[in-house]
Amino acid sequence: MTASHSSHSQDRGHPPAPRLDAATDTFFAAPGSPPVEWHVLEGLTAYPDALAAMEARVGAIADGVAREAVVLLEHPPLYTAGTGARDGDLLDRRFPVFAAGRGGQYTYHGPGQRVAYVLLDLKRRRQDVRAFVAALEAWIIATLAEFHVAGERREDRVGVWVRRPERSPTPDGATAEDKIAAIGIRVRRWVTFHGISLNVDPDLSHFSGIVPCGIRGHGVTSLADLGILVSLPEADSLLRKNFEAVFGETAVAAPGA
């Protein structure tokens, strides 16, 4: 998926810089900023409920009355359509389809997939959306490395990819590869929302109802598909550790926050 935002654009007449030039190791907040609230929701969260909560929190962060937050959750099986979704990429309406408002095209969410909604104030960090997306990718890649999985970025494809040399090459002779984590964001008043989804152990057959992120010719994988069996709490622990390395300190949110 691609990042979508309304507060940043390229100067006319100048081609965009290569995407991978936006690599970043850290994306810390300004000194004195409070820790990012870290929420982990139990059970399955309905997508409309999550979207409404994000919308409210983004407004509160932008108004300076709420802290930045990361919300980890699972959704029931569903498809979301980003602002660039094409009708032909919805192959089988087997699950509910929701308009997401984020960048990108169609994606799947469901049990066994860790979704992390990332609500950060770029005014107190860096007002650079491309660098923010690169920081999200760096976060996922560092987390995957904890499981000895080599995640990689691509110039023409946002998200994190894993090479699959055991499979037949692509028609152009390149090594086969699968997406293990998707990214789709939106930025409003310089506050980010939506975020990332990491495939821990979802039912990969559920992706067959869409062309994931509009990308044909590549597949989708998960930690379980790669032979790495971990629980969501184990994945969450490493996601938090590596988030802090890239974005800074977190604090567990108070109940009901």
UniProtKB/TrEMBL annotation:
PROSITE patterns: BPL_LPL_CATALYTIC (PS51733), LIPB (PS01313). Its main location: cytoplasm. It holds the Pfam family LplA-B_cat. Substrate binds at R102, G103, G104, Q105, Y106, T107, Y108, H109, A182, I183, G184, G195, I196, S197. The record marks K179 as: Lowers pKa of active site Cys. NCBIfam families: lipB, PRK14341.1, PRK14345.1. This is Octanoyltransferase.
